[in-house]
Specification:
By secondary structure, the protein is an alpha+beta fold. It has helices at about 55-65, 70-90, 90-105, 110-135, and strands at about 5-10, 15, 20-25, 30, 40. A hairpin with a 2-residue loop joins strand 2 (about 15) and strand 3.
């Protein structure tokens, strides 16, 4: 049987697999041989970091992945934020990406949805940062 996914963890790192939290005491390489819902600790967004609606959406989808037993409440929270984002988003490209994310979550492809959301909020934040640095200064 060939590995579907391989990754290395350092001592003390955690990984979330199908709702279970695993930690390793020494450097190890893991191979997942079948489909599993997993999230590396380095991709976990802390609540304090969920400072924008897009980051809040990521946080909720992350919770769906980490806590599958709370799926009903997680999906309700997802739809609340997701529906609001669709209403306020004016850029059609972003709306299309959001719809794709909604489809991924509906099909329980949460890891793929997280990657897409991360790409969206990193893109939006980099645009915001470059706009704020390009603002002209007031003349004295």
């Amino acid at each position: 049987m060939t590995a579907k996914m391989r990754f290395s963890l350092k001592a003390g790192e955690r990984i979330f697999i199908n709702g279970a939290v695993l930690t390793v005491s020494q450097k190890v390489t893991l191979s997942l041989l079948n489909d599993a819902r997993f999230l590396l600790e380095s991709h976990v967004l802390q609540l304090a970091e969920a400072t924008t609606p897009m980051r809040q959406l990521y946080f909720v989808v992350q919770a769906l992945l980490i806590n599958p037993q709370e799926e009903e409440q997680g999906m309700a929270a997802f739809h609340k934020i997701y529906d609001a984002l669709l209403v306020v988003t004016t850029e059609e490209t972003t709306k299309a990406q959001l719809r794709s994310i909604g489809d991924l979550v509906t099909r329980r492809r949460t890891f793929e949805a997280l990657k897409a959301i991360r790409g969206l909020f990193e893109n939006v934040e980099s645009k915001t940062a470059s706009t704020s640095t390009m603002m002209p200064e007031k003349a004295a």
